[in-house]
Design brief:
Strand order of the largest sheet: 1-2
Number of strands: 2
Number of helices: 6
Shape: globular
């Protein structure tokens, strides 16, 4: 769970993991977990989907809409086609010293990895980042939309245009 953790310098790795897990369990309530189940996701799948929402949404208020797009695509048996999954699959970029390659090129979307949702239907095998509580909540309570597609507005706002058709 992202957040600020104040711990003793003498803390052991096991103790630190316990602190982080306790924070996660405090924030990801049984109600949220029940909601994931009602939407057909186990906890790992919910965290994985929230990680995609986290990386796609620059503007927090768009997270429930982006979550709805992913749910709509999953229910239709479509690939998620999420750029951050291709970025994750590409790994660390030594030339730019970043984990998130920008811009992505068409060839980048062909990277062979179970994490690349341009190549595989369904969720990747695990999270691609550490999702925020707002992303986890968006997965539990997605907007009700007809959208299957979204694209960055390219106006530096961080917002997206959403669409029913490609």
């Amino acid at each position: 769970m992202p957040g600020e953790y104040r711990v003793s310098r003498e803390i052991t790795a096991q103790e630190l993991i316990a602190v982080i897990l306790n924070n996660f369990e405090t924030k990801v309530t049984p109600e949220l977990q029940e909601r994931y189940t009602s939407l057909g996701l186990d906890l790992n799948e919910a965290v994985t989907l929230a990680s995609l929402v986290q990386r796609e949404a620059v503007v927090v208020r768009e997270q429930p809409i982006i979550a709805s797009v992913f749910y709509n695509r999953l229910q239709a048996g479509m690939k998620l086609d999420s750029d951050p999954t291709a970025q994750y699959a590409l790994g660390y970029q030594r030339d730019t010293q970043t984990w998130w390659k920008m811009p992505l090129y068409t060839g980048d979307l062909q990277v062979d990895s179970p994490y690349n949702t341009y190549q595989n239907i369904g969720l990747p095998p695990g999270a691609i980042c550490n999702p925020s509580l707002s992303a986890l909540e968006a997965v539990a309570y997605p907007a009700d939309t007809p959208y299957y597609y979204f694209r960055a507005k390219c106006d530096q706002s961080g917002e997206h245009n959403f669409s029913v058709t490609f």
